[in-house]
């Protein structure tokens, strides 16, 4: 009876139902969702999804890290499978859509294809990746990373969560671990297609339904430490000071002014500052601040940093201070698959669905897969760009447009 009723639902109704259903695992009264890797709500969500996949006639299985796959077997024996999906984990008190949407889209698309067109030629799989956010253990992309080989079980041995539980303990308690299940890895897959909410407000502001991502931006992060000399705020004349804050503010000013003369999509953020001794009536002897720089072209990032840092030295010297610049992150931009993007834009143009080709300022699992197999990342609008919050919201009609696109892409590729 329940099955009968479910069949009657339209795709948009199924989408709305599945969003609320999945959000109930780890859901709070405030409307937020917390599903940390290998937690109870995480395990319940994966198990419930497994049952949903089986209900949709997919062969559901886990890998050793706890990634869950739903397989729609193709008639061709040879050849690799097409993969779609996203991550099941959330940040603490996150939203209903981040990650979850890509999984829901995959399950509903495969269900639709099976119901309307039967068995495909090529195998298609949907994956509910175990982890992306890094919100329980100090490591991100465990799901896609363990699949691609970018991360290994050796990388997680020393990790602990805030309660002191080790990664291995948590993983084993959930029933996963090296050798517990098979490890399909990316060698079995032809390509990866991820649907995700934009987590920015470009699509909404420009009134576009779909974002076709050309690149995931590269990121560099630095810590800049300015060394000066502490002294009395009342008795030290301005001209004799070695004020680390005076230098830091000049450097940040230069950074922001230079960024305005770069291509508009270069973004620079100084989001953290540590002042020592951090006392109102003492001249700071040490200021450390972070710099986060992102762009889709690594040459642009490089030339920006080189120019900025060249002027830094002189500015620090003029103020009687010295500098240490420490680079601690350098992630290269990742290009998404042009052929897959062409397929998407052709479908969207034919349908008359509005879209925008754009870069992604955030990473996503596509950043990992894109280093190994042809990858496509597609966005749907995020209301006001709000994400990692209970207020995260995307209209069901927008979610459905994304799922429709995924159905058409998979149909074209697999049938
Ligand atoms: Zn996400």
Automatic annotation (TrEMBL):
Matches recorded under CDD domains: M20_bAS (cd03884)
Chain coiled-coil ranges: none
Pfam family for this entry, one: Peptidase_M20
Keywords of this entry: Hydrolase
InterPro entries named among the record's database cross-references: Amidase_Cbmase, Bact_exopeptidase_dim_dom, Peptidase_M20, Peptidase_M20_dimer
Domain Peptidase M20 dimerisation positions: 218-300
Family recorded in the similarity comment: Belongs to the peptidase M20 family.
PANTHER family (UniProt xref): ALLANTOATE AMIDOHYDROLASE, ALLANTOATE DEIMINASE-RELATED
Protein name per its UniProtKB record: Allantoate deiminase
